[in-house]
């Protein structure tokens, strides 16, 4: 799948409200060279529905943008998305096979109380607390490394992500 000779693909997952978008914005400024994609930026439908056609279009859009970044040979390509379903991750990797040299998967998590507080501060968010907590539980069960964002600001999270990337 990967030979280490191409761009590094970083899959940054986490439940809604954990701080992926904020950390990605800081990370983008800190990377010397690279490309960053917040999946929400290419998945906006009005009204916001989670029907099969809308979800599939969103996945195709994300993969298309990642393909463009990887074909442009950005040395580091970072995707921020919930990524709680391993089948989605496998689909992304499969459809981009041969375009990246290595993959790093890292998940942002937070305590239930911290996640609830963040979501309550942003009532316009499309996902409920119940949905976010369900995704958190799915992510906590995954074997990939986790970074607990509880009590951290976006700059600190970005610094820790960079440290994980080496």
Q: What portion of the residues fall into strands of 2 or more residues?
A: 15-25%
Order of helical and strand elements: EHEHEHEHHEH
In CATH terms, the superfamily is: P-loop containing nucleotide triphosphate hydrolases
Would you identify the regions where 5 or more consecutive residues have pLDDT less than 50? none
Q: Compute the number of helices.
A: 6
| Average pLDDT score | 91
Structure write-up:
The protein is α/β, with parallel strands linked by helices and 166 residues long. It has helices at residues 20-30, 52-71, 86-95, 112-121, 129-140, 154-165, and strands spanning 8-13, 35-38, 76-80, 102-109, 146-148. The protein has a single domain, classed as P-loop containing nucleotide triphosphate hydrolases (Rossmann fold), CATH 3.40.50. It contains six helices and five strands; from the N terminus they run βαβαβαβααβα. A five-stranded parallel sheet has the order 2-3-1-4-5, with helices on both faces. Strand 2 (35-38), helix 2 (52-71) and strand 3 form a beta-alpha-beta unit. Helix 1 packs across helix 6 (154-165).
Topology diagram in text:
Blueprint: E1 8-13, H1 20-30, E2 35-38, H2 52-71, E3 76-80, H3 86-95, E4 102-109, H4 112-121, H5 129-140, E5 146-148, H6 154-165
Parallel strand pairs: 1-3, 1-4, 2-3, 4-5
